[in-house]
Amino acid sequence: MYKISAISYLNTAPFAYGLKHSSVNKKIKLLYDYPAECARKLLKNEADLSLLPVGALNDFDSYHIVSNFCIGSVGPVRSVTLISNNKLNDIRKIYLDYQSRTSVLLVKILCKRVWKISPEFVSLKPTDNYKSLEKNEAILLIGDRVFEAEKYYSNIIDLSEEWYNFYKLPFVFAVWVSKRKLSDEFIKELNNGLELGVNSIESAVDEFNQLVICRSEAIEYLKHNISYRLDEEKLKAIELFQELSNTIDL
Ligand SMILES: C=C(O[C@@H]1C=C(C(=O)O)C=C[C@H]1O)C(=O)O
Questions:
Q1: pLDDT score at 125
Q2: 184 and 68 share a domain?
Q3: Cα torsion angle, 189, 192, 194, 196, sign
Q4: Which residue in 57, 134, 190, 214 has the most C-beta neighbors within 10 A?
Q5: What ipTM was assigned to the predicted interfaces of this complex?
């Protein structure tokens, strides 16, 4: 049995659906985790394969990207946002979502390179509440919680849209990664499952039991905001993101 740590958010529902409804299902145990946990489990050998946040790739001495599918976007992604009641220039403090490994770096890159602001960064704890932001504070929030949180604030900045406008590139949040080399046969079956999933968005939404937006909005989000194919432009984006990540203080 291969243990697979997959992201628990709606954007991964098509992948989960495809894996469950194809032949690879009998060879795997699917674990649903938030992105930072997907990274921790792969590092600690609690998973054989993870949908790994790109921001965690540097944790590994060596790794294998086993699929041409990813969690990416071309322009607005909707679910990776800097949320506040302020204009960018008035933001002094940014709380960082503990569930993220990629977007916490992305927001720092955007602050430094694109927005030219230098706020203080503070890591959020799981018990912190995004509803208690004070004046001049903002929060980087990812995943399905954004769909709820965005209702309470007036300034919602989509980080993928900001990246796209400035660098003219798509963005990649997570890729399928193993630490050890897995068999070619398994990888082929895995990819067949992922392919089935990205071609079954409606059914994946119907099977996803934590939907916090309506069905049509979910379908629109998965078809138009999330971009699942890891093509040349997205590989270029990963390379640039890693280069820029190396220039920021952690
Ligand atoms: C598109 C998203 O990107 C997620 C953000 C990640 C991160 O910041 O580490 C990792 C995986 C993605 O699922 C989202 O949060 O909805």
A1: 87
A2: yes
A3: negative
A4: 190
A5: 0.96
